[in-house]
Amino acid sequence: MSDHRYSALLTDLYELTMLAGYFEKGMHRQTAVFDLFFRHNPYHGGFAVFAGLQPALEYLSQLRFTAEDLAYLKKLDIFKPDFLDYLESFRFHGKVTAPAEGTVVFAREPLLTVEGAMAEVQLVETALLNIVNFQTLVATKAARIVSVARPGVVVEFGLRRAHGPDGGLSEARAAFIGGARSTSNTWAGQVFDIPIKGTHAHSWVMAFPDELSAFRAYADCFPDQCILLVDTYDTLASGVPNAITVAEELRAKGHEVKGIRLDSGDLAYLSKEARRMLDEAGFPDVKIVASSDLDEIVIQSIRNEGGCVDIYGVGTQLATCGGEGGGALGGVYKLVRFDHQPKLKVTSDISKATLPDRKRLLRAVFPDGEYGLDIICLEHETPEPGATVFDPINPARTKTIPPNVRFEEVRQVVMEKGRITQPPSSLDAMADRCAEQMQRLPNGTIRLTNPHIYKVAISRGLHDMRSRLMQEALENQPGDEKR
Q1: What is the pLDDT of residue 3?
Q2: Does residue 164 belong to any structural domain of this protein?
């Protein structure tokens, strides 16, 4: 959304109070590094699809406090005048490292690494999480749906159930990256150049004296884009037969009905019967579109039962990221280096302990192109095949890097000194990247139930640094807390 600027007030209050505190204590210019990551793959699945980078970079590059923003903050009577004067010229001058959108990613991996003056990299936490969490979750949901719908295609139908207008716009963008390459959302079509698709509602059929009249009227208005909703009254007794009648009439005029849509009932059974009726009537090319609260589980069931659906219109469950293990990505933004020193969040639950310092994210790739494992290592560290790497949650669990792999850098610098350094990719390129990378995952990784757990490991250097910092932190606790 290059013509859209997010407000500098798209943040939680505590970001501003911390920023004011850093300013007052003279810490606001000290260098800090933050990592944005999530701790668990969404939907209890085997992967996620990274999305939201370009909107995030646009937010950072355009970040500034307007006169109206400053007037509002002054009215709160929280902040001192010299701090508000500082905000007047506030800009983001930092560095960002990230994967390309459409990259397959996994739990605990650093996605965005944001580096710069403490004031700048702290303030942007909330907005970056807002943008990346949602779009990554939607792209992941779409990729899961598309993976089970093939060879059928998926159309994004979620605007009316999305979380507000901006949610609907962002959701359409992210769903495209995940593989739903068309949308019913006309605004998203305009903003992102996404192909738009649509039919008509039940109200169209009900507005006419009978179903056949409604179908004929629609075909008359749109003879070359005619998809008929056939379940207003009785799908097999009237809807499909009436659609066939109109298809015959259109064909006589030199046009063809494009498809029919099923929006209720037993979609597997109805699609099989509809396919039989259409084929017997001489319309094997008429597509069958299915909607009605679809998700990856329902679509898989339709296909397992032999359903004959060509196009799946997925709305509510995609727009709201529904399903067990969905609803929110749970991404976090943690300090990993401050004032030239690595930093670590220490906790009794090692699954919530952070990985300190600047890091690289490497992907080990077998000669046939299949992904083997991902390795998080220190900035200047390069693990070699045959080296031992460690599970980030259970360090007692180790793995040897296979001898026949090569390494790919998963991330690159995408912003330097507050300027975007990479030309924006097209959404098609992002969606192609997602589809290609999912094909390279080990067998079972995209399975919906009990997926293969793709290995993410930390290098020896990172393991040793984390262990040392944890020990130092415990030794520096006062009194009985050392025990």
Answers
A1: 52
A2: yes
